[in-house]
Amino acid sequence: MDYLKGLNPQQQQAVLAASGPVLVMAGPGSGKTRVLTQRVAYLIGALGVPPYAILAVTFTNKAAREMETRLLRLLGEKAARGLTLGTFHATCARILRREARHLPFDANFVIYDTDDQLSLLRQVLEDLNLDEKRYRPQAVHALISYAKNELLLPDNFPVHDYRDEVVARIYRRYQELLLASNALDFDDLLLYTVYLMEQVPEAKQRYARLFEHILVDEFQDTNPAQYVLVRHLSSYHRNLFVVGDIDQSIYRWRGADYRNVLRFEQDFPDAQVILLEQNYRSTQAILDVAMAVIEPHPYRTAKQLFTERGRGQAVRLIEVRDDVHEAQWVVDTIAELIRNKQVAPGEIAIMYRTNAQSRLLEEAFLQRGLRYRLVGAQRFYGRREIKDLIAYLRVIHNPADEVSLLRILNTPPRGIGNKTVLALRAYAQQLKLSSGDALLAIAAEPQHAVSEVFPQRAVVAVARFGELLANWRAQMEHLTPLQLLDSVMSEIDYRTYLDDGSQEGQERWENVMELRRLAAEFEQSGLAAFLERVALVSDQDTLAEGNDAPTLLTLHAAKGLEFGVVFIVGLNEGSLPHARSLDDPEALHEERRLFYVGITRAKDRLFLVYSQTRRAYGYAEPQAPSRFLEDIPSHLLELQSLSPEQSWFAKRGAKDAYEKAFAPASAPILEKRFSPGNRVRHPIWGEGMVLNSALKDSDEVVDVFFESVGLKRVSVSIGKLERIS
């Protein structure tokens, strides 16, 4: 098998890299998934590394599935069997279930999603008699998550004032209730795996010896806990192959730290560093704009993105009157593109900084009568009917799951009100049992539960539900997830409860049918695997493919995707960069990276749009264009103002921006300025020698061997290349 077929020289270098630490700095659209896949295939097929000795970590289930599909196509199912491939969270969950004997929970633990975690935090606030308005669950949740990502347990939580002291108490009680429910949150999966590595030496040695080769995708998005975990797992063989790009680090708000890329270079000074600069997605016109936006970023490894797709159409920068006009213009333009069959509807995306910006766009689509799909507004697994049924299955699997039990005790209504719930919890505390186990005990011997705490009337209602739970648990080992789900829905008559004949009721039932289809895929792997899949799925994993309609999504949600035509709207100060970032240099850098990620999602055409004013409470508030637009040379843009007011293009400085687009300096390059053998100087890479020069799409493309970084391909129109001899 030819493991290098179709790969460019930089990709080949990465696939064939010798053992030891390797850092691949992969630009957007540079084929990094293919490199990772071919690397794994090369290790197994050419070097004879057993699949079970390879750990490949991705950031989404979608990326893991894509990589698995490619590997099966390359190697066949038999050759790839035993490979550990999945997300950080899925990998950690697998390790923790195997090693549960060393940990304060058993192997049947459940994984709480964000809604479950917030419900538990509200319970903690109630238990501690704290005001939910003063200690908002979402804010406390963010602090606890940050602490766990920094590997800080409740006893180590930094306390600087009284509020910190209270948050530490909440954190401690939250962990106690999680463990009492035999549950973990997402951050616990990492925290306890690192704890296992550091507190159980034989476990660390076992996994460090087992995984001869570790490959990590999207390394710039790792948090401190993930970095420490990778260091532990690679401590024996040191064959750590990471792929990342500081320019695309956009998840700081959830703990990601691009500085892990810099730490890697410090911790592994002998690491091979390989740059992937050839882009297979975008045209050169789009890449030139992207490079102009990201070049001022201070912490990046210099890369010069190039493509063989040609220059393509110029990037258009559109100035509109206000945000309402912006939405109407975008939707009108999309309608025209579709009507003229210039692009398939599903190949169009509109990207914005925050979800709130979708409202005007949605209204414009509705007014036009055009279909669209919205990503991230209401997740499939966040819908009420889906969470109800998953909660039933969780309690059947793990009766100690308090949050799920409280959700279903009276859903559908069965006469178990708040007072009965409080009585059940009090009775469970008396018996030193979880509420679920107390429920099963009542079902077995209801007469023993009658007391001052638990009156006869409450016992009867709870015992009936307890019998249902006991029956489902008895069936659990013999039924597939789909059969168990159907049994639950039949016993509680869920369809009657859900489908009231309205359009919303019908749609809810259609969602349940989709859940049944998913459950059917777990006939062999069982209930635990099904529940784990549901818990670990992300917004991006649920993005339907093949929907033939334009997509509306945030720039964060766009990571990892690509579209033929992209509109980035709301390019104003306060929107992008976001107002919250204006006084924080690190946050501003991330806003720049976010814009860069959005630009590089476009394959063929890119529209950048900003408005002069924004409507708010009946008034037109003046808006300034995004500072990032100032970094794009005018000759790289096709500028158009649709506003009757004075254009920012003119204000940019004495005809500088608007007229510069037509100035002689921006004219096409019609003859070569560089020849093989010329000595040249670049502001970043220093001096080098020209090896080759060619005219391509009204630009000169030069191959230069630089003394500092080796061979680079430079577009003369933006490369700032100076001839010195």
- What is the multimeric organization of the chains shown? single chain
Query: Looking at CATH, which topology of the largest domain would you report?
Result: Rossmann fold
Q: Taking Cα atoms only, what radius of gyration do you get, to the nearest Å?
A: 29 Å
Known CATH architecture of the largest domain: 3-Layer(aba) Sandwich
Question: How does this model look, in words?
Answer:
This protein is α/β, with parallel strands linked by helices and 725 residues long. It has five domains: 9-99 and 190-278, P-loop containing nucleotide triphosphate hydrolases (Rossmann fold), CATH 3.40.50.300; 110-181, Arc Repressor Mutant, subunit A (Orthogonal Bundle); 315-378 and 544-654, Rossmann fold (3-Layer(aba) Sandwich), CATH 3.40.50.300; 380-536, PCRA, domain 4 (Orthogonal Bundle), CATH 1.10.486; 678-723. 43% of the residues lie in helices and 16% in strands. It has 27 helices and 21 strands. The strands form four sheets. Strands 9, 10, 11, 12, 13, 14, 15 and 16 form an eight-stranded mixed sheet that branches. The chain has a six-stranded parallel sheet with strand order 3-2-6-7-1-8, with helices on both faces. A hairpin with a 3-residue loop joins strand 17 (679-682) and strand 18. Helix 1 crosses helix 2, helix 2 (32-45) packs across helix 3 (61-75) and helix 5 (88-98) crosses helix 9 (186-199). The longest helix is centred in the middle third of the chain and has 21 residues, at 456-476. It is globular and about 100 Å long. The protein starts with 8 loop residues before the first helix and ends with a strand. 43% of the residues are buried. Mean pLDDT is 87; it is low at 657-667.
